[in-house]
């Protein structure tokens, strides 16, 4: 005589058990990705703030050089945009 495995009956058996786990796995993976994205955002923000502080320090030490550099960049951008027309 063969005995039927209760999990293999018409109620869905193992497929239902796996199907019930899918939303949990999805929610867990979503949470992991969210935490990772938050960490990457914070790292990027910290680096940008460090870069900003360094730039401020350089401008304060050499203001004339900073102004001349800004003028030079402005002239180059103006030339590039002027040639488009």
Q: How would you summarize this macromolecular structure in one to three sentences?
A:
The protein is an all-alpha fold and 85 residues long.
Architecture overview:
By secondary structure, this protein is an all-alpha fold. It has one domain. Helix content is about 80%, strand content about 0%. The chain contains 2 helices and no strands. The protein has helices at about 15-60, 65-85. Helix 1 packs across helix 2. The termini are far apart. The relative contact order is 0.04.
What's the helix and strand layout?
Elements: H1 13-61, H2 63-83
Fraction of residues in H or I helices? over 70%
Let me know the average pLDDT. 84
Order of helices and strands: HH
Radius of gyration: 30 Å
Low-confidence stretches: none
Number of strands: 0
Measured between the Cα atoms of the first and last residue, the distance is 89 Å
Outline the biggest β-sheet.
none
Question: What percentage of amino acids are in beta strands?
Answer: under 5%
Secondary structure category: mainly alpha
- Shape, please? elongated
Which oligomeric form is depicted?
single chain
Structurally, how many domains make up the residues? 1
Query: What's the tally of helices?
Result: 2
